[in-house]
Amino acid sequence: MMFLWLAAILTLSACAGKQMEVALEGQPYPLRDRVPEEFSFKIKAPETITYLSTVDEALLTPDRRLEVHILRGLSEISAKDQVQEVLDGLWESEPLVRKLLQKPGPEARDYFYPLAELYYMLNTGASDEWKREASERLYRKVFCNMHPNQLSGYALHFYTMALLKRRMFKEADPFFKRLRTFTPADVYMKDMVMVIDMACRHGDHAYAASMMAKACGFAQANGIELPEVELRHCLSCLVEAGKAGLAAKEMEPLAKAYPELASHSFCQTVMAHRSSVKPTRHTVRRKSRPAIFNSRPAPEPVQVGGREKENTRDITVVRVQTIKASRDRYYLDPALEGIGEETLFALEFTSFSLVKENELRLARGESGTVSLARGQVLRINSRGREQGKCRLRVTIEQGHKEVFHTELESVDQGATVIGREETGEDGTVLLRLITLLP
């Protein structure tokens, strides 16, 4: 069986890691499966509005029926101030809403989705004191310990917006990451820009800088255009605050993981602010190679050449990490912490486990191999080093047939991710190639 390998970041198909939920057998419920629109105070997507106006409520469970009423109200307004009018109408017409907001008890677990949307409404526009109290009560008793996997679709969309409106960027971040699973890439990019702008305006410059780097990696990974005008405006805010160096610091490891970003004009502008990063005061010089992963001992090198003496100036060490990635939970193998959050975010998955790690030490012209699953073999050939960079030819073979090949150019501690498209519960296999130039 032949698998498709891509020299970039691969995304699982839309059916992987989540399933279309159904209220009753045979009845689709798309409100928790997909969010085809960017952050806004109201619902605008035509397909969502059509569903809300045509769904047979008799076929819905109580929590979904309430959710339809809430989202239908948000689809019928034209101004942000009207969000409170919709909430007031629900308070008057839905006894269940009054009960859940006044005294959220154990039954609230069955209404996570509509409560998340009500929480957004409580935090949007001018509201009364009782609404602010209800918002705090909901967060304290229902949401403060909630895991992102407990929400999906529009409820996740609006709950994330509520946290962002409250300037709770740290708390919103894992929910925002999960939102990517339900949102088209081009739409998600618009959401990212909005998040960066909000963080800049509210003074969380570190989070804005981190998200700015993630946006660049996300655009590169998904082949979409980077919204330079909007991002340059956000960067100017960081410059005015004297925090542009934070963005450069966040961008640097991403540029190593994706060398092609170095040619992007916006990324070059960001990296130009590296000089504004205050250097760490360390004077100890170490000749040993810096460790990328220090949570487990380095593997024994794979012998690929029989020479006793090597010219170390033309030796390239390639560390090959076989990683299992999926969206079924939130987990990062301790051995992978050195990858960096920006790279993981660009990969679009939420769970990363290191399956194995091999190391190849290659002189110019030498090849090394690593066995993969299903009889496939990864072969790496060194084309030598020049001016602090190494060149590699990477192939994947199935039997005697080459099923994938690419030419790579990398720097010391640079990394390239190769992914195999595979759907189902097993997720996706990623190969991370780290180049070390001794």
Description:
This protein is of the alpha+beta class. It has three domains: 35-182; 191-276, no CATH class; 301-436, no CATH class. It is 39% helix and 19% strand. The chain has helices at 46-54, 62-75, 82-93, 95-102, 112-122, 129-143, 153-165, 169-179, 185-201, 205-222, 228-240, 244-257, 265-271, 341-347, and strands at residues 5-6, 301-302, 315-326, 331-332, 351-363, 367-371, 376-386, 389-398, 401-411, 414-420, 428-436. Strands 1, 2, 3, 4, 5, 10 and 11 form a seven-stranded mixed beta sheet that branches. A four-stranded antiparallel beta sheet has the order 6-7-8-9, with no helix packed on it. α10 (205-222) runs parallel beside α12 and α10 (205-222) packs across α14 (341-347). The radius of gyration is 25 Å and the shape is elongated. The protein starts with a strand and ends with a strand. Mean pLDDT is 79; it is low at 1-26 and 277-310.
